[in-house]
Amino acid sequence: MYFSRTNVSMISTVSTGSGNVQISGTAARGDKVTVNGAPVAVRPDGTWSVRVSASHGPTVVNVVTVSADGSSRSSSSVTVG
Q: Which domain range does residue 57 map to?
């Protein structure tokens, strides 16, 4: 059985109303990662990183990982702001 692993970690903080937050994590080799529906490049070692615009008030960031063969799906949500 194949298990996808997703580790979402905040590497910078953002206060309400400020610009961007950087989200990074790891996925299994070959997994497809999206953040708020947009595809994110996964490096050969499985790490990935993306900047997300943070609006005024709380911003929800949704991360979805799908295994290379499509048989497994994992999701995480982080609220910033």
A: 7-80
Number of domains in the chain: 1
* 78 vs 57 pLDDT, higher one: 78
Helices (H) and strands (E) in the chain, counts: 0, 7
Per-residue model confidence (pLDDT) at position 10: 38
64 φ, ψ to 5°? Answer: -125, 135
Beta carbons of 60 and 77 less than 8 angstroms apart? yes
Q: At 10, list the tokens.
A: 């905040």
pTM metric for this prediction? 0.75
Look at residue 41 in the predicted model and tell me its pLDDT: 93
Instruction: Kindly report the CATH number assigned to the domain that includes residue 64.
Output: 2.60.40.10
